[in-house]
Amino acid sequence: MPGLPTDPEQGRPEPSAPQPHTGFVLGLDVGSSVIRCHVYDRAGRGRGSSAQKVVSVCPQIGWVEIDPDVLWLQFVAVIKESVKAAGIEMNQIVGLGISTQRATFITWNKKTGNHFHNFISWQDLRAIELVKSWNSSLIMKLIHSSCRMLHFFTRSKRFLAASLFTFTTQHVSLRLAWILQNLVEVQKAIEEENCCFGTIDTWLLHKLTKGSEFATDFSNASTTGLFDPYEMCWSSFITSLLSIPLSLLPPVRDTSFNFGSVDEEIFGVPIPIMALVADQQAAMFGECCFQMGDVKLTMGTGTFLDINTGSNPQQNVGGFYPLIGWKIGEEVVCIAEGNAGDTGTAIKWAQQLGKLSFTQISQARLKEVKNATGSQISRK
């Protein structure tokens, strides 16, 4: 009919720009078992969510990896699914924050962005012999004795912590050293100054910004075993000891920081990336453990006990080690952490063997727990 638009899109009202009061934020958690995305409104109410299982790859006994290409597809998918579940549009998202499993890392080509290997998980044991060798080495004995002497004269907590320091497979340090020793492609890229290193947060930031941003935050950096929480920077001593070039490591930013924006091609709109944080520290913050002495215990793939130690890191005592909880502006919160890395995995293994059920676990625990009056709680 005359006067009617011939283009079906023509004549439709232009979508109005989202008003400030309609803004939503995305909270993403890339865990060891599950990757989740939640949509929150300005009142902090959950409006939509999505989750997918993280699949680990075990090419050899003791090796634990994650396929980065699969993880990226899952990451993008849970964002799209959660936004759809919330019944909103991408242009209503005003920012996102990312929490990730810690000390799981990857290296990639600086020019092409192509990765040299899968993510090496914090659960991976390929460097176990390196760990044993270093911890029993003459060099470590000299370091410990020297630092004990320095602590005696200076009373510096930093030297006391160094006198008790040992390597573990959970640290990035010796797993990265293993990669540098065994992958020729990585060695060549380092020689050509064409290699980047990152934990999951750094790699996701790189992918989301199409390579324009390269950074991590203090909470993630402090869990690598390559970071000095007393000096608040990458440890030149540890990196030189293990022949790890400092040039591989990303700049360290505040936990709450403008890390750039998601490239518009990915979701159709640029979305500001406003926070990167390690998962256990994120749990600490989420449980409002803001005061010195506050404690949180999380039980997932592993069990992690964290204590807020204020603005100063504490020395390694009784199996606890110092980490940075978060840094926001001038505020620095330190934590002391102890962990048992395989509790959830062990329970899952027992369940798969048919040796354990959640009902059995609950009944066993109920028999041991006393209520506030001191009477025994039981379940029949």
Please sum up the structure shown:
With 380 residues, the chain is α+β, with helices and mostly antiparallel strands. It has 13 helices and 18 strands.
Structural notes for this entry:
The protein has 380 residues and is α+β, with helices and mostly antiparallel strands. The chain has one domain: ATPase, nucleotide binding domain (Nucleotidyltransferase, domain 5), CATH 3.30.420. The chain is built from 13 helices and 18 strands. The chain has a 5-stranded mixed beta sheet with strand order 3-2-1-6-14. The protein has a 4-stranded antiparallel beta sheet with strand order 15-16-18-17. A 3-stranded antiparallel beta sheet has the order 4-5-8. Helix 3 runs antiparallel to helix 4. The protein is globular and about 60 Å long. The termini are far apart. The N terminus and C terminus are likely disordered. InterPro entries: ATPase_NBD (IPR043129), FGGY_N (IPR018484). One of its GO terms (molecular function) is kinase activity. One of its GO terms (biological process) is glycerol-3-phosphate biosynthetic process. Keywords: Kinase, Transferase. It holds the Pfam family FGGY_N.
What features would you highlight for this structure?
380 residues; alpha+beta; Nucleotidyltransferase, domain 5; four-stranded antiparallel beta sheet; 18 strands; 24% strand; globular; disordered N terminus
Q: Which spans of ≥5 residues are poorly predicted at pLDDT below 50?
A: 1-20, 370-380
Integer average pLDDT:
88
Count up the domains. 1
CATH fold assignment: Nucleotidyltransferase, domain 5
Which CATH class applies here? Alpha Beta
> What topology, given as strand order, has the largest sheet?
3-2-1-6-14
Kindly provide the radius of gyration, computed on alpha-carbon positions and rounded to a whole number of angstroms. 23 Å
Q: Main beta sheet: strand number and arrangement?
A: 5 strands, mixed
Shape designation: globular
Beta-strand proportion: 15-25%
Q: In CATH, what is the homologous superfamily?
A: ATPase, nucleotide binding domain
Using the 3D structure, state the CATH architecture: 2-Layer Sandwich
DSSP strand count: 18
Region (Disordered): 1-22
GO biological process, one term: glycerol metabolic process
Domain Carbohydrate kinase FGGY N-terminal: 25-286
Family: Belongs to the FGGY kinase family.
